[in-house]
């Protein structure tokens, strides 16, 4: 069976760089193995799920370079989940429970006070038909739990029941089902929790590898048991470490922290985000990787650390600058044209200015400076103004090339006695209106003698 992976976001907010990590781990795993990538929207929570978020998630993935082969919405698959529920009920593996959250919390505290593990004691299995009818008469609705296979014959006498898997990221893993409560699969209102629809979809869609955050490690054992209860072989699992802010806080879609949408709107390069999201917290050094194929070549799930990875958003900006400063003209060409940067000197212009850009879009300002002059005319004191008058009166004759700047400034040193910053800064301000920017030796041929004279204060 060919490798098939999935990314399963809930469309309840904008995905952030931590979500992108999971999506990219799956996408790169599929690329390395010639597999398929499924985008599955876990949108069974109708109250919180919104189409606008689903649409944006698709756009965000496309922006990152992740192109799903299949897109599925869980909200369209309730009949399939209902059938799985009936199968588990008929097998006696899904049982109704009437406890309220307050009653469950009280029992949990009692067990803890007795130094017992705070797992559900399966009290609902002891209820008589009369007791069940009494609860129903009160108007209570049951929630439904999956009966874990952690006993021989008596469900009230559990025994250590180990579930093993060779984790794609973490290596050999073991979970003891006796240490867990029977998971709730169906709520009192009949809606589904994450677990059952996820397992059913993984079976139906032929998912071979589930790669997700390590906050899911503990419930993997229960999910494997559900796969087997439904007559299926569980996929391979991989659990990568989570990303946190530099202060150690978790990322949340609800707060919009470092959302992919906001990063794209800021003009950050997709591969800057992808490089950081994939390489941080691994044995690989974090560096700006220019293409997804190169990132796939460096991607090794087993090289991921087991501890959470802290990062600073400034790292994204540093990677972004590296990508821009090294971007070939052919890669930038169409985006430059969209900014109005076109013509026979567009390539030369790009090679001159790219090393000074924070964002590719910043090239538009430099194009305006080259073509039309400083965005803001500078005011000079009398001494600098006199120096600039001398400078512009002694411009070299054309043709101009990258040696013209040195010839011009060498002559000005002899004429005025100025050197260093007092020589170069007034010239830079007069020519560009900025204290920093591209090397003037490279910029001057783009301005030309006529364009330079036009900037005379």
UniProtKB/TrEMBL annotation:
Monomer. It comes from Aquamicrobium aerolatum DSM 21857. SUPFAM superfamilies: An anticodon-binding domain of class I aminoacyl-tRNA synthetases (SSF48163), Nucleotidylyl transferase (SSF52374). A motif ('KMSKS' region) lies at residues 250-254. Residues 3-315 form the Glutamyl/glutaminyl-tRNA synthetase class Ib catalytic domain. Belongs to the class-I aminoacyl-tRNA synthetase family. Glutamate--tRNA ligase type 1 subfamily. It is an enzyme of class 6 (ligase). It comes from the Bacteria. Residues 351-455 form the Aminoacyl-tRNA synthetase class I anticodon-binding domain. It is found in: Cytoplasm. Pfam families: Anticodon_2, tRNA-synt_1c. It catalyses: tRNA(Glu) + L-glutamate + ATP = L-glutamyl-tRNA(Glu) + AMP + diphosphate. Its EC number is 6.1.1.17. Its main location: cytoplasm. GO terms for molecular function: ATP binding; glutamate-tRNA ligase activity; tRNA binding. ATP binds at residue 253. A motif ('HIGH' region) lies at residues 9-19. This is Glutamate--tRNA ligase. One of its GO terms (cellular component) is cytoplasm. Keywords: Aminoacyl-tRNA synthetase, ATP-binding, Cytoplasm, Ligase, Nucleotide-binding, Protein biosynthesis. Catalyzes the attachment of glutamate to tRNA(Glu) in a two-step reaction: glutamate is first activated by ATP to form Glu-AMP and then transferred to the acceptor end of tRNA(Glu). One of its GO terms (biological process) is glutamyl-tRNA aminoacylation.
């Amino acid at each position: 069976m060919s490798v098939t992976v999935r990314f399963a976001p809930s469309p309840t907010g904008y995905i952030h760089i931590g979500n992108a990590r999971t999506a990219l781990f799956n996408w790169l795993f599929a690329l390395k193995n010639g597999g398929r990538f499924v985008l599955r929207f876990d949108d069974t929570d109708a109250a919180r799920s919104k189409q606008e978020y689903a649409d944006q998630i698709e756009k965000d993935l496309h922006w990152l370079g992740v192109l799903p082969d299949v897109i599925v919405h869980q909200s369209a698959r309730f009949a399939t989940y209902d059938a799985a529920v009936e199968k588990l009920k008929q097998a006696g593996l899904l049982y109704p429970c009437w406890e309220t959250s307050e009653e469950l919390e009280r029992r949990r505290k009692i067990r803890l006070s007795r130094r017992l593990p705070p797992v559900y004691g399966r009290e609902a299995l002891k209820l008589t038909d009369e007791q069940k009818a009494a609860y129903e008469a009160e108007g209570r609705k049951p929630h439904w739990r999956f009966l874990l296979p952690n006993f021989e014959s008596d469900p009230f006498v559990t025994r250590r029941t180990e579930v093993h898997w060779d984790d794609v990221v973490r290596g050999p893993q073991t979970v003891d089902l006796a240490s867990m409560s029977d998971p709730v699969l169906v709520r009192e209102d009949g809606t589904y929790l994450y677990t059952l629809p996820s397992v059913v979809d993984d079976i139906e869609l032929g998912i071979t590898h589930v790669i997700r955050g390590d906050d899911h490690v503990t419930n993997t054992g229960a999910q494997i048991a559900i796969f087997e209860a439904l007559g299926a072989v569980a996929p391979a699992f991989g659990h990568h470490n989570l990303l946190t802010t530099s202060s150690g806080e978790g990322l949340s879609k609800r707060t919009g922290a470092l959302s992919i949408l906001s990063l794209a709107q800021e003009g950050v390069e997709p591969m800057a985000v992808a490089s950081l999201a994939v390489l941080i917290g691994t044995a690989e050094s974090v560096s700006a990787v220019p293409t997804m194929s190169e990132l796939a070549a460096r991607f090794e799930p087993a090289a991921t650390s087991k501890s959470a990875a802290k990062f600073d958003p400034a790292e994204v900006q540093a990677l972004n600058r590296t990508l821009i400063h090294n971007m070939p003209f052919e890669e930038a060409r169409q985006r430059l044209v969209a900014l109005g940067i076109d013509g026979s000197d567009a390539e030369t212009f790009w090679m001159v200015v790219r090393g000074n850009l924070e964002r590719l879009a910043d090239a538009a300002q430099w194009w305006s400076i080259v073509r039309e002059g400083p965005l803001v005319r500078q005011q000079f004191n009398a001494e600098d103004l006199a120096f600039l008058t001398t400078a512009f009166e002694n411009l070299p004759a054309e043709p101009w090339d990258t040696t013209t700047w040195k010839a011009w400034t060498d002559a000005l040193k002899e004429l005025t006695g100025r050197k260093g910053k007092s020589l170069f800064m007034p010239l830079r301000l007069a020519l560009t209106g900025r204290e920093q920017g591209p090397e003037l030796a490279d910029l001057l041929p783009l301005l030309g003698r006529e364009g330079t004279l036009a900037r005379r204060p």
